[in-house]
Each structure stands twice: as structure tokens, then as C-alpha cells.
Amino acid sequence: MRALPVGDDALLVEVTSGEEAQALHADLLRRRAEGTLSVREIVPAARTVLLDGLTDRSRLAAELTATEALAAPPRAREVVEIPVRYDGPDLADVAAHWGVTEREAARIHAGTEFSVAFCGFAPGFGYLTGLPRRYDVPRRATPRTSVPAGSVALAGPYTGVYPRSSPGGWQLIGRTDTVLWDQARVPAALLSPGTRVRFVPVSGS
Amino acid sequence: MTDRALVVVRAGALTTVQDEGRPGHAQLGVPRSGALDAPTAALANRLVGNPPGAAVLETTVNGCTLRPRSTVTVAVAGAPCPVTVDGRPAAWGAAVRVPAGALLDVGTVVCGVRGYVAVSGGVAVEPVLGSRSTDLLSGLGPPPLTDGTVLPLGTPGAVPARVDVAPQPAPPAELVLRVSLGPRDDWFTREALDTFTSRTYRVSPASNRIGLRTEGPALERARPGELPSEGMVLGAVQVPPDGRPVVFLADHPTTGGYPVIAVVSTRDLPIAAQAASGTPVRFVAVRRH
Rounded to a whole number, what is the distance in Å from the CA of A184 to chain B's nearest CA? Predict the structure, then answer.
């Protein structure tokens, strides 16, 4: 892995895969919980983990660059289930891209176990991985100016659920009533990095 | 019983509630937010006897007009501007007593951009994830003030306001931002790196609490495409496809896919919050320590 200094006290650690980024993230969380790592933010992303507000950047950089491959993190025990009506306006496009029927596309998606690789874009928006790479889909050529809250959507290798209405360019395959972000709830975010997720098909109403 | 509240008579162009923000939740996609010119917000609080983390109002260019329902001590700091109480001139950058029902007017700035209005007891809206700050990117915290908004105030501390006039740095005629290059400087040509650290940019009117946008020579990329999304820090200088650097401020997104050519030293960000559009900007590369 490669550790790039960022600004005064941050480090961007670059790895080669999403799985490795998740393993590194889990390892860094463990170190922080043990008290051996002093850091303000640990932000996992697609191929990196950002550590912001480090007290001893150079020592950590040296340690990480000397680290061999990390073991996969222990999986979270709980699985969050998200009921979905697979009736999104882009379901037909996604099914065509996969070369299957809409019904089969919904079955493939609901039959997959996902995990939250990282969060971003909006509070409570998780980038979920789990589908095999052959099911990657492009973003829409023209983003929508407004995507309704609860939309279940695909882009690249990721599945995401829009926590609130916002503009967006992902392919909408369905919709859920599950509340992804509720600031009155503890924790406010239903999904955080490492959370296991299953989508459960429900019939439309 | 006194009604400890503040009535917003004139909200101004953009007035928000700000404190020290909500760092520590970036892994959930939550921006840090908080006062852009944090040392000035802390100073205004000190002038009225508040702890440095009390919530204040951050105004933009044309101030705001407030009517407290109980007698309060206020301090206006940041971008210099006229201050009046019931039409009579009052001190800027110092503690001012505003009687219950009187009209406090924070006028249009003489120079600079953002004013900070601290009120004894602090603005006591309900915190979200430990902070009362308005986050314009994600919509967390109270919405920007509108005419007629009533803001609850906290109980003033036992420590009385210290009556002093505090020196404050003047808003910049030229903004000099010290940067350390990277983490993605290798995504740009050598010429682009030279241009970035030697030419003068100007603050774009499209700047906001999310980013200080610039106008000036476009920076050419050495490699095409986009990065997979990666974590972003405060002060990151992101270069979008138009090639003009954007400096990330408090409400910046937590992840992004455009390459970060350099990061501005956090010491230089408070003054960047006071750079009006058109202000010349220079990025000066400093060696990492």
C-alpha cells in the first residue's frame, strides 16, 4: 500500500481493491479502539482510506507502507434488510444491460448480499458492493434533476439508496420506504461502512 | 420570566447559525461545517462572555437586523461594518449592550465578506450530531435565517462580558494561500504545477461555504479520466474539468473524484473566508514539515 501525505496532518492510504480498502478500514478502526491510533476522521472510499487529524503522521505512514496484505475483516453479524419495490424507471434499461428480463434483474439484485464499502455524497448514502463485476452499469447519460428519497439505484459496481430527494445520475431500479437517515435516531445513519445489507422484494402498491 | 430569544427582522443575503461544526462523522458522508472564519467567531464569543464553541450568526456581505426579546450583550466581528442600536452608532469589534426590544442593525461590510454576531448565552437551536451549524451542502442544522425567524438564546454564563476592543486582521487585498502539493499533483503536467504556484487567480463570485472558486489560467491534466471517489480534507484544492482550482471550505463534500492538486494550510483558511470576489489569489507551495 502507498501512503500519500495530505496537507498538514492527513494521510491518504492507497490500496489496490475495494476489499483491501475495507480490510484496512477495519484494521484502522481496531487500532483507534485500542488507543494506538490518534486520529480525527477515518474515511474509507473506493480504493483509499483517508486519515485526517493525525498526531503522528510520519510514524503511521512508515508502519503502513511496511504492512503486508491485511486479512479480510470479520463480517458484521447483523444484516440490515431493506424492503424494495422493484419498479424503478431504469429497471428495463438495467435488465437490458444485463441481458435478462426485468423480473430476473430484480431477482439477481435481491439475491445478492451487499456490504457498505463507504459512504459519501449525502449523509447516510452508502456505496454498496456485492454484485459481480459483470453487472456493472454506466451512469445515466443525463442526470435527473430530482431523484425521490428512497430510490434504490445502481452506478458502476455500486448500489445506493437516496436518503433524501436530490439530483442524481444513477439508474433507478426500485424504491423503499426505509428511512436511511434520521437525525433524531441514534445512530442517525442506517448504513455505515461495513454494514451488511439485503434487499427484500415487496409487491408494489 | 424573560423570553430569551432573538427575532430576525432582516435576515440579509445569507445568514446562518454556526459553531465549531461537527467533525468526526465524515465516514457517514457528513461534512464538518462550522464557522468559516473560526478564530473570529471565537473572538466574538469571548467579547460577550460565551465559551468559544457557542453558536453565533455568520452573515454574508450585507449583515442582518435583529431584535432581542430580552436585554443581551452582543459583539459584531469579522468583516468591518457599521453597527447601530435603535439607529444610534454602536461599536464594531466590541461588546455592545442591546436592551430588550431594541433594534440591532449589522450593516453592509466596508470590506471583507463574513460578519460574526455573538449574543450572550449563544444561539440555542437544537444541535444535530453535536453541532448547531447550518450545513449548506447536506442541509443538516437549522436552515439559513429568513425574515421573521425566532432564535432561542441560551443562558449567559456567570462570567460577565469583558469590555475590550480586540484587534482583528484586515480582510485581504491579496489572498496568499500556502499549499503543500499533493496528494494528486502527479495528475497534472509540469506546466500546470508551475502555473498553479506562480500565476495569480481571482476569487470567483460563485464561491460559497462549500468552496472558494477561482478564475484564472486552466490547469492541464497529465492523465485523463476520474479517480475513484476518495476522502477529501478541509482546504483541499480540487481541480474540476474546467481546470480552475476550487479550495474546499467547511461545508465541503466528504468524498470526491476530481484530483486534489494541493492542500491549503488550515492557518490560511480563516482569511480566505473574508476574500471578496475579484480578490487576487496566489498559491504558494511550501515544503512539508
Answer: 8
